[in-house]
Each structure stands twice: as structure tokens, then as C-alpha cells.
Amino acid sequence: MPEIKAPVYSADGSAKGDVRLDPEIFGIEPNMAVLHQVITAQLAAKRAGSASTKTRAEVRGGGAKPWRQKGLGRARHGSIRSPLWVGGGVAHGPKPRDYSQRTPKKMKRLALRSALSARASESAVLVIESFDWAEPKTKQAKSLLEAIGAGTKTLVVLNRTDGVAAKSFRNLTGVTLVDPGHITAYDVLAADRVVFTSHNVGSVGSAQGGYAVSESDFVKEKATSAAAEDEGGDT
Predict the structure, then answer these.
(1) Left, alpha or beta for 197 (phi > 0: left; psi -120 to 50: alpha)?
(2) All structural domains of the chain
(3) What is the mean pLDDT of residues 43-70?
(4) pLDDT tens sequence across 105-115
(5) pLDDT (tens digit per residue) in 146-159
(6) What is the DSSP string of 103-168?
(7) Over the Cα atoms of the chain, what is R_g?
(8) Residue 4 above 90 pLDDT?
(9) What are the CA-CA distances from residue 18 to residues 1, 101, 209, 231 (Å)?
(10) CA 124, CA 116: separation in Å to the nearest integer?
(11) What is the DSSP string of 40-92?
(12) DSSP helix/strand/coil, 96
């Protein structure tokens, strides 16, 4: 398996050399079928599913027959709320539904590793040595991205301890922040550059990393786990 490397930069954007990436995460052959299925499931789970129309039974009015059955030379009708009439009910219209799909965690991990490997093969994975900023400033975050060649559509993977960096990046247009345990295949493929820190680049995508489901991914499963936590807290 070929050696996969990513450039390392300091917090001010100066080059610090290269770092070797885990070939099991950044060097596999992308599985396009699994990627397609997982991303389709993720996008489906994002759908609100709240579209609704009224059937002829739900539209108000139309209780009386508009005219008698025979003798007038007109087509027979039983209700003005038929789908044939303006203001009538909708035939086979949308109703509230759940679009989410169940996706095994092994498939999610494989899709994530496939996406990371695809970005690594394009030299789109960048590593920041550490964020030693004293205070949050959007200007210094923007300067860093410009210095390392990460323009719009950048995914920045930060730990929860990187609060100063998170506040610096969060107002930048096109920048998405994500926790290492919540990164998804869609997040990676939607970004042109993926920026890690030297502390979290080795913990992403591994089975031991405890892949957690983010709010933007597989909403139904997220809601189920939240409900379980609430029940545990009540007891």
C-alpha cells in the first residue's frame, strides 16, 4: 500500500513538513456503491417530510350533489370537492412521512474512509500542527486558510478543546466545523479541502473512535438515542 502523506502547517500558515496518514483510513480504494448508498440515506434523513395536501374527504364543503344525475345534458358529478374540480381534494398528494433510512454503522465507517481516501488522493487533506491562538479572531482564521490554499468549501475538524479556533472559524462563509467523532462522508465530499489538527487526524474513521451520529446525519437514529438518554436521565 503506497504511503499517504499530508502537508503540516503551523497556526500562522507556515509549512512544517509532512505527516504520514493512516493507510487504513486515507489509503483505501473508495467503495463508490457504499458511498452512494450512505450519502443518499443521509440526504433522505435531512428531508422534513412535512409536505401535506388534503384529500376529497378532508376538504371543506361538497356535501350536496351539485346537480341532479340526469336530464341537464351535463356530466354527472357527485361532489364539488372531487379532484376534478378547482378547489377540490388532491388525488395521491403528499402526506407527512419519514424519509430516513436505516444504515449499518459498518457502512457509515466504510463510506467515511472511502471519502477521506478520495480526498487524500487529491492532496486535499491538510493538517494544522496546533492552534495556539490567544483569543478568537476571524481575521487570523481567514489568513490561515488563505496561506494554506484552502479557499471556499472547507471542512475544519476540531476537538471540543479547540474553542478559540472554533470561534475564529465559525463566521467564515463556506467553512464547516465538525467534531472528529461526528464527521460524515457527505461532509468530506461536500468540501474542497479537509483541515485536521495533528491531534485528531489519527482518530477519525477508526472503529475504535466510536463513530457517533451527528445532527446532520441520520436524523431518526439521532432522535432515538436522544430519547434514550432522556429516559435514563429521568430515572
Answers:
(1) beta
(2) 4-46+101-234 (3.40.1370.10), 53-93 (no CATH)
(3) 94
(4) 999 999 999 99
(5) 999 987 899 999 98
(6) --HHHHHHHHHHHHHHHHHTT-EEEES----SS--HHHHHHHHHHTT--SSEEEE--TT-HHHHHH
(7) 26
(8) no
(9) 18, 40, 24, 47
(10) 9
(11) HHHHHHH---------TTTSS---S-SS-SSSSSS---S-TTSTTSTT-PPTT
(12) coil
**C-alpha cell, 190:** 461536500
For helices 32-46 and 219-234, the axis angle rounded to 10 degrees is 60
Q: What are the φ and ψ backbone dihedral angles of 223, each rounded to 5 degrees?
A: -65, -35
Give the span between the Cα atoms of 200 and 152, in whole angstroms.
22
How many Cα atoms sit within 13 Å of 28 on the Cβ side?
A: 15
Average pLDDT over residues 206-231: 44
Cell of 92: 395521491
Q: Which residues pair with 155 in a beta bridge?
A: 176, 194
